[in-house]
Fold this protein.
Amino acid sequence: MDEAILAAVITTLRLAGTTTAILFVIGVPLAWWLAQHGSRGKLAIEAIVALPLVLPPTVLGFYLLIVLGPQGPLGDLWINWLGHPLAFTFSGLVIASCLYSLPFVVQPLQAAFESLDRHTLEAAWTLGASPWRAFWNIAVPQARRGFLIAAVLGFAHTVGEFGVVLMVGGNIAGETQVISIAIYEQVETLNYQAAHRLSAAMIVFSFIVLLAVYSWNRRQAGWWR
């Protein structure tokens, strides 16, 4: 495998793993709050979380580039704090990926939490269990299906990113070049053989991810013995 392609694969896996881990830290409490509360602000927050599902990636990438750029509020703060820019760096890619993949983690978790047996949680609270203990000992085990789906979809969606990644990270080999951008670059240089290999690998990866998710869902539903 070409060194540049290998670097793109490593960067992609590193980005997807980092993004998924951060999204679980953010997404689990957010999904729990959305599942347990019915305030007016809930609808607005749900709409904000779901925006990446309908918003063109270039639109989100454009505004992120403004915010993360040297003249942007977060970009300027980052430079003053750490001494280097945020846009066109791996750190900038992580921030953009977290925002773009947020609904793919939050929505499965929210659905899993909403399907929990409320009476079991209330019984635990009645018996003196703290909300934190009831969450970890009751909610999390019962929602394991949602956790797995969120992890798989969050990771896979980040692997397939293109528009947001290109806008915020550019195409810097070994730093911000991911597989989707590497495919685009190979096509631009008319290296269709390399583009075919990478594209075929992405198709196989996507198929395996979907097959794993559907198989898990059916097993959990008790359709398979």
